[in-house]
Amino acid sequence: MMRYGVDLRRFNTFGLPAVAEQYLPLTDLAQLEGEEFRQAPDLVLGGGSNLLLLEDLPGLTVHVLLSGITWSDGKGRFRVAAGADWNQFVRYTLERGFVGMENLILIPGTVGAAPVQNIGAYGAEVAEFITAVHAWEYGVGPVDLSPADCAFGYRDSRFKREPGRYLITAVSFDLSTPRALKLDYGAIRGELDRLGIEQPTATDVANAVTGIRRSKLPDWFLLGNSGSFFKNPVVARSTYERLLQTHSDLPAYPIDEAHVKLPAGWLIDRAGLRGQGNERVGTYDRQALVLVNRGGACGRDVLDFSKRIQDTVAEQFGVQLEREVQLVGGM
Ligand SMILES: Cc1cc2nc3c(=O)[nH]c(=O)nc-3n(C[C@H](O)[C@H](O)[C@H](O)COP(=O)(O)OP(=O)(O)OC[C@H]3O[C@@H](n4cnc5c(N)ncnc54)[C@H](O)[C@@H]3O)c2cc1C
Asked: Which CATH architecture has domain 69-174?
């Protein structure tokens, strides 16, 4: 049922204040055929863990609360409703013995939002496992999009580039293909060594990733945040080589012959901004890539501080940081 003047503070992990003029929870697919859904929403809201709410939201906010996991074939095919909790789905697959999702454990948010920015962590991306995205296309009706239709990229997809066109209702995954564990990214091997595990299972890797994430990322219940605020910038190899002359310990991940990816957190840290900010907003003292609401911040405070970071990094390294979080309002 439609509600009016709903405070979204508890529906976004940054804990930012914003009032939705019209708020409609979506709990049943049949609702999409109704009058209230005729107009495209101004915001489709999942778990609110990748949003920067800049102001009160005029118009319609649809909160996707569709739930349920269907494991139809007993093998590795799953169809999951868009409002299902991502982390619970990952655990569901691991408990049933499937390999693949372990590196993506503990990412907050919903299954329906996972394709939007092609969530990824520790060398894995959700696009590797998606066979179809089921959506409601405004002005058209129900549609099924293949992975090619979704145009997945690094923290990117068609859904991110065409906001307002699709409401994702469910996602289909295939985990039936045998996969090797991915152990070479970040501190996974180190954490497995620390735990004394030589022949890890997918669950061991999930436990290792859980340990690493808990040590690096703030709990958003205690300190509002939206995870990585910026994408890791992809730069020309020549830029990387120039930077190496003054910063010999600059880490980089190869993308192709001509490009490398630099860790945005390292750049912010080296620009002297880790733990910096003011009484309302700052960078987390254990991970400079995470901006935190220290109490009473509004979206503008976070946006202004993020611009200061972008300017400082651009000045010091000549590298432009691009936001990963989605700005809502104030455009
Ligand atoms: C502590 C922390 C750690 C994080 N770590 C990671 C990480 O390791 N890797 C990573 O990739 N991300 C990470 N994130 C970001 C975030 O968890 C993901 O982007 C997640 O997929 C967002 O899901 P959500 O349901 O909260 O989406 P929301 O924040 O509600 O929405 C995000 C975007 O998706 C759109 N959207 C949401 N649901 C739908 C739908 N059903 N149909 C159409 N559009 C929709 C929204 O309109 C918005 O544009 C982290 C966030 C936090 C707070």
From this structure: 2-Layer Sandwich (3.30)
